[in-house]
Design a protein that fits this description.
The complex is a heterodimer. Chain A is mainly beta. Helix content of chain A is 0%, strand content 59%. Chain A is globular, with a radius of gyration of 14 Å. In chain B, the strands form two sheets. In chain B, strands 2, 4, 5, 6, 9, 10 and 11 form a seven-stranded mixed beta sheet that branches. Chain B is globular. The N and C termini of chain B lie far apart (31 Å). The chains are: A mainly beta, B mainly beta. Chains A and B meet through strand 5 of A and strand 10 of B.
Chain lengths: 111, 111
């Protein structure tokens, strides 16, 4: 069946580095997305991985291992504005490319 | 600004009533998705339209319906409203199987 697991909540310190993990079980994998969502606001696209490896985009990087069904989002030089939920979503090719969403990880940044 | 617009921003109504939420996708996007997000919950996929046709259905109640018009805007109709329908309703759009971009959402409160 389809399943995506992320930690419910994480806490980190301003200026530090945090890694948010996402594991998935799905068939017909066709890419993995990370979105950021501030409370009460819309999710905003952060990154997309379809091949194994690391994709770097400024302070944010995303890693994918298809054989392990595993991804992580790495946030460096944390800022208070990074306090948000981070959603992992997997796209499946056999279901009209639907996104299967994780429940999200709430990241709390402390000064 | 994602380019996806939603109206209204807020909606307060009573149980048993019917409301219509409206979404205009990004220019050129043919796919529209509707999501429900209850307080502190994950995104629940409701339904997807592609170029006017229903493409995929998620956990959408029978009291809810949607359509996509020839100009590609979409409407989500919620009827016989219950207290539990209070939530944020997001619309997202994409070009075929590409990244989904979210509108700002409609906050529905059922009293």
């Amino acid at each position: 069946g389809q399943n995506i697991d992320q930690p419910t909540e994480m806490t980190a310190t301003e200026g530090a580095i945090v890694q948010i993990n996402c594991t998935y079980q799905t068939s017909g994998f066709n890419g993995l997305f990370w979105y950021q969502q501030h409370a009460g606001e819309a999710p905003t696209f952060l990154s997309y991985n379809v091949l194994d490896g690391l994709e770097e985009k400024g302070r944010f990087s995303s890693f994918l291992s298809r054989s392990k069904g595993y991804s992580y989002l790495l946030l460096k030089e944390l800022q208070m504005k990074d306090s948000a939920s981070y959603l992992c979503a997997v796209r499946e090719s056999h279901s009209n490319y639907q996104l299967i969403w994780g429940a999200g990880t709430k990241l709390i940044i402390k000064p | 600004d994602s380019g996806v617009t939603q109206t209204p921003k807020h909606l307060i109504t009573a149980t048993g009533q019917r409301v219509t939420l409206r979404c205009s996708p990004r220019s050129g996007d043919l796919s529209v998705y509707w999501y429900q997000q209850s307080l502190d919950q994950g995104l629940q996929f409701l339904i997807q339209y592609y170029n006017g046709e229903e493409r995929a259905k998620g956990n959408i109640l029978e009291r809810f319906s949607a359509q996509q018009f020839p100009d590609l805007h979409s409407e989500l109709n919620l009827s016989s409203l219950e207290l539990g329908d209070s939530a944020l309703y997001f619309c997202a759009s994409s070009s075929d199987s590409d990244t989904q971009y979210f509108g700002p959402g409609t906050r529905l409160t059922v009293l």
